[in-house]
Design brief:
Elements (H helix, E strand, L loop, with lengths): L2 H12 L2 H17 L6 H27 L5 H22 L3 H18 L16 H20 L6 H24 L11 H5 L1 H17 L9 H20 L6 H7 L3 H15 L1
């Protein structure tokens, strides 16, 4: 990997473009499975809103401490984030009113996640054991509920099943992240691997894959091909779970693990293209 490509690739990962593409992919799956026409506004909000949110959570404190003395990469990330915030802002005002309310609720949750409520009360990100559920809820909300509400569709039991499936998938991927980050995470966070240990966390992932997979059979308009697609995702997650350890590099999680939603969408695209 030459230096130019490595620099660009690191910016792609560290600037949260890859994770934003993962969120974008899940939004496209919602359009497909809920028979919603492609919505550029919701897609832009999901992609650019994720890019800004992730970069804000990761770098806001660093930017504040550096006080204007930034490296080239940091300047690029700040520029990307400001552009993303602008596009996400315009997209928000183009949403339907009810979708705006849902988005504001999720935004509030993100702000509480990143910013301390009070000097003596830490942000939700540092509350022991709660982080993974907030992130999973926000991903499921942004990628499923916002597109549904913006399209004027009802929040039916079928949508609830889809929400749970998304929630479980993101929760599983975060657990893999936490295994890899085991040596870096503050012990006060009491992450699942810190509490249960690495091997028991891997068993928990295997357990969570069961509802993720079998919820598919309870969806309205069940498609057998999607059960096969989900089996591919289960196999991919099993492989990543097997390989997960604190010895892995950042590319393992930031690129490969975060690619799972993208692969899931590409399977759907491929099935639609060849059918």
């Amino acid at each position: 990997m030459n230096n130019s490509f490595r620099t660009a690739f690191n910016l792609y990962l560290n600037g949260s473009v890859h994770v934003s593409l993962a969120v974008f992919s899940l939004v496209q799956m919602t359009f497909y499975f809920c028979d919603i026409p492609f919505d550029a506004v919701v897609s832009a909000l999901a992609f650019f809103g994720t890019l800004f949110s992730y970069n804000f959570i990761k770098y806001a404190e660093t930017v504040y401490k550096l006080k204007g003395v930034f490296s080239k990469n940091m300047k690029a990330i700040i520029a990307m984030s400001l552009i993303a915030l602008t596009i996400a802002g315009f997209s928000f005002f183009m949403l339907q009113f009810n979708a705006q309310l849902v988005t504001l609720g999720l935004l509030l949750l993100c702000l509480l996640y990143a910013i301390p409520i009070y000097p003596k009360i830490p942000n939700l990100r540092n509350w022991a054991g709660i982080k993974i559920y907030i992130v999973s809820f926000c991903w499921a909300g942004v990628t499923l509920i916002v597109p549904i509400v913006n399209a004027g569709l009802a929040l039916t039991q079928d949508i609830g099943i889809k929400f749970l499936q998304r929630f479980f998938l993101v929760l599983i991927l975060i657990l893999i992240f936490e295994i890899v980050d085991l040596q870096f995470d503050d012990k006060k966070l009491k992450t699942v691997p810190q509490t249960l240990g690495m091997e028991k966390t891997k068993r928990l992932i295997l357990l969570l894959l069961i509802p993720f997979y079998f919820l598919e059979f309870f969806k309205l308009g069940f498609q057998s091909i999607q059960a096969w697609n989900n089996l591919v995702i289960v196999a991919l997650v099993l492989f990543f779970t097997w390989k997960a350890s604190p010895k892995q590099t950042k590319y393992f999680t930031l690129f490969w693990v975060e690619s799972v939603p993208i692969v899931w969408w590409l399977l759907v695209v491929g099935e639609k293209f060849f059918s």
